[in-house]
Amino acid sequence: MVWKALVALAALADALPFSGEVSTRQGSVTMLRFGCAQVVIDRLDPLVNPGQIPSTHVHQIVGGNAFNASMTTSDVSNAASCTTCEFSEDFSNYWTANLYFKARNGTYKRVPQGGAANQFGDTFSTKIGGGILVYYVSAQPGKITAFKPGFRMLVGDPMERSRTGTTLKRQNCYRCYTGPNFGGDVSAPCQDNKIDTEAFPTAPCPGGIRSNIHFPTCWDGKNLDSPNHKDHVAYPVSGPATFLSLGGNCPSTHPVRIPQLMYEVVWDTTKFNNKAEWPTNGKQPFALSTGDETGYGQHADYVFGWKGNALQSAMDTSGCMGAKCAQLKTQTIEKAKACSVKKVVQEDQDGWLDKLPGIDMGGM
């Protein structure tokens, strides 16, 4: 999507001096936006259930082919030999829960993923069906410090089923595409209560459902991980930042600014919009692979794996937009899709299922 907010911010960056630096250059805005095709769908979770085969629920994973049940290697960029991401020096792994449709007869079907809208002439991202669109943004005051080898984090709570207050309001959201496709969407995510929801949309979405997940932007500067994969990072004191926000101070416990990492997944729900197949009680029919029928339990995992100084160099470069940054190498979608990881847990992932893998939800 072509976000007007980004265009306006970039224009402002060129026209006005800021009281502090944005990235490492005054007035600069950098936003890497690139697609990563699917590397595997499997019931593995090297962060929450390291070494456990199978883990508790299914994930969809993109990125480098070093992904495995344990991920004990401190620098995965040295363990991977290929990546499904457009930037060929990015061997990181990115993953989220899968989405399922539950028919009126009680059976489940995995919802496929679509490609992303064409922005900045990036046709690679339009062809990542089954993948994730990834963003790294340095539109914040002060120096941005890229992640280090061994860094990993988790955002969201797979067990969350309700939410009160507004502290995590912008952490994750869903957008129901009411048109036949999502190509005309021009507004940034998780900022408009009229079109973005924290829970699953309750009505059929003719163009599918978009899911956005924002990671924390502050780091303690010491720990590459923590026991719950969250405590070493934090949101600004004002809570999760709005996308491309220039505000929000980091807490004193987490003073180091890190890139704004965001995932975007487009779920192609168009084949499941027949309300005659929805539950008779009127509830919406979708569930995450965790068994969550609300959508509040959406979560995402990240293991850093950029080669050498590539990501820091990009964050230090003013004006990198989309999948074009002078010093970063890219690859074709064909080469990216040739990269894969062998599935470990042999389960049906595309047929109609009597229950979710690892989960028995019971009645809906």
Automatic annotation (TrEMBL):
Give the source's domain of life in one word. Answer: Eukaryota
Q: Does the UniProt entry include the keyword Membrane?
A: no
Q: Name one Pfam family in it.
A: DUF1996
As given in the record, the signal peptide range reads 1-15
Q: Which InterPro entries match?
A: DUF1996 (IPR018535)
Sorted keywords for this record are: Signal
Q: Where is the DUF1996 domain?
A: 45-306
| Protein name in the entry | DUF1996 domain-containing protein
Q: Which organism is it from?
A: Coniochaeta pulveracea
